[in-house]
Amino acid sequence: MAAGAGAALLLAFSCAVQRRAAGARARAVSWDNVERLVRAKGAGTALAFLDARLKEHPRDALLYYYRARVSYGAGDGPAALDYADRAIRLGYAQELSNLLKAQVRGGLYGDHAGQERFASAALAFDPAYPDAYLARAGARLELGNYRGCAADAAAFSGLEPSGPEGRLLALRCLRELGDLDGAEAAGRRALELAPGSHEALWLLGRLAAARGLHKVAVARFTDAIRLSGGEPAYYLDRAASCEAEGDFVCGAWDRAAAMQWREVSDYATSYLLLGAAMHRAGELDAGLEAAETAVRRLPSDAAALELRGRLLAERGDARGARRDLLRAAALAPARAAEIRALLPAPGAPAPGRAAGRK
Fold first, then answer.
1. CA quadruple 126, 127, 130, 134: dihedral positive or negative?
2. In whole angstroms, what is the distance from residue 326 CA to residue 307 CA?
3. Which of 267, 285, 319, 354 is 20 to 30 A from 106 via CA?
4. What's 335's DSSP letter?
5. Residues 57, 38 contacting (CB under 8 angstroms)
6. CA 88/CA 26 separation, integer angstroms
7. Helix 180-193 to helix 198-210 angle, to the nearest 10 degrees?
8. Is 118 within 8 Å of 99 (Cβ atoms)?
9. Where are the alpha helices (DSSP H) in 229-267?
10. 314: closest CA among 357, 271, 277?
11. DSSP string spanning 57-80?
């Protein structure tokens, strides 16, 4: 009986321990759970959840680190840095928290010196931390330390040989160093590792353009656009290579395609470049529309007024052309004689080369 009672007591104790362990696991917070909460209900809900947990567990360094990561994702730099520092003070994985600070400094503040400094701090704690090499390589690229960037990119690739990111950074840095063959090899290897990488194709296209191989560049940019669905830089780079090949129609409409993005269309000079491209392509209506916008945004810019004046002259509006060209000549006295030479006679018909063009 005593033996049976002891066994029963031991079983009851064991069950209680298992229930406590199961309860602890249920209460434990993992990054996967936090990330799912962010996706399902937003960063604000996830932050409120973490804050509630921190009230219960004010010395849980992992919760502070998660709080920092969610703040970073929400674009709250000061909070991200504050909570990362709290995690560091409590002794949580120094390399992770320092890398997060590097990402905040570079990604949210554009402070690439700070990004380099904190990535280096992460590597001091873990010299085999691939993501820290990648972060420092990106910082060094922005800072113009291309040799350091190439070395860090190579270190990342040595630790993560199946990751294309290191090869892509190596391409950028080696190109800046003038090692075009090395850059090409890095880009091709990145494309082998990630055959659908539109970024790799774009960078290889830029490399071909730098070598004067514009037909090759156009083909690579076209593939990058197809795979990505379109990026403004891809269209603008293809436009430049098309124009270098004498295909002004391709160049003009690629510049027009890039105007879908505000990072391009917010700049008045983009309309000036678009108008000039449309003018070269013989697309007078589209060119005049762009030139009108350029003049509206840059009313005292001689180049914008000259462009609109040229287009108006070719459309047969001699009076409007003279008005714009005379203003342009007054604003750019060094080129006044050259601009005045474009003046149409009052009531003059449109130049012959504009006939049949709209």
1. positive
2. 12
3. 267
4. G
5. no
6. 26
7. 160
8. yes
9. 232-244, 248-258, 262-265
10. 357
11. -TT-HHHHHHHHHHHHHTT-HHHH
Three-class SS of 162-177: CCCHHHHHHHHHHHHC
Q: Would you tell me how many other CB atoms lie within 10 Å of the CB of residue 47?
A: 21
Cα–Cα distance, 358 to 194 (Å, whole number): 44
Paired tokens of 194: 């990630």
Residue type, position 342, single letter: L
The answer to whether the Cα torsion of 275, 306, 241, 153 is positive or negative is negative
**Predicted TM-score (pTM) of this structure:** 0.82
Those residues with Cβ within 8 angstroms of residue 128's Cβ, 6 or more apart along the chain or in another chain: 159
Reported as a single tens digit per residue, the pLDDT across 250-294 is 999 999 999 999 999 999 999 999 999 999 999 999 999 999 999
pLDDT higher for 22 or 130?
130
CA 172, CA 206: separation in Å to the nearest integer?
10
**Measured distance CA(281)–CA(182) in Å, rounded:** 37
From residue 202, alpha-carbon distances to 33, 225, 261 in Å are 36, 8, 18
Cβ–Cβ under 8 Å, residues 325 and 356: no
Compute the distance between CA of residue 348 and CA of residue 76 in angstroms, rounded to an integer. 61
